[in-house]
# Entry
Amino acid sequence: MPSSLQLHRSTNTFSGGCHQKQQAQPTTLRSCFPLPHDVSLPDTFSSYHVHTLRPNQCCSAVVQAMEAPVDTVWSLVRRFDNPQAYKHFLKGCHVIVGDGNVGSLREVQVVSGLPAGSSTERLEILDDERHVLSFSVVGGDHRLRNYRSVTTLHASLNGKGTVAVESFVVDVPPGNTREDTCIFVDTIVRCNLQSLAQLAENMAKTPNSFDSL
# Structure
């Protein structure tokens, strides 16, 4: 049975944000499901977007609809060795351990102008049947410590398009608030998903033009 995701807003892109207000500092782990309340996922996919937060962490999610088949979008998302194909904040990637399967490590180079130089990331989930990818940041020259991202793809209600859901959890850097951290990461994720949508939609229109990706 194909999965579907119900969107009740007319906008194509929106983020869940941090629903936890920064009040008393919690002392125990807590769960965060950052998707907007008007987004409904099948239970088998909702569990991927439940994150366990430590006291100094925040989580959020971004949802992007695109007019391209799931298989076309997934052909881009699943390329752990080539994230720069649609993530324009990256200028290069090199797999340093593994062959692109779960457990592989990659080192990505960040474009100049951002407060980062490189990031070392490990592939945690690669599910070709369910269209789920997850990676975690394990090192690098940046401030996004203990970052973990999960992306799931779902057929749109008309069966012709795709809805991508990307959620994340990350440490709040010293001197920053949860809200500021979520806004910063949300912006990067949203730009990446918008770029993914544009590339996938172009591929759907002219599939033979992107064979080199």
Q: What stands out?
A: The two ends are 30 Å apart (CA to CA). The domain at 58-205 is CATH 3.30.530.20 (Alpha-D-Glucose-1,6-Bisphosphate; Chain A, domain 4). Residues 1-15, 18-26 have pLDDT under 50 and may be disordered.
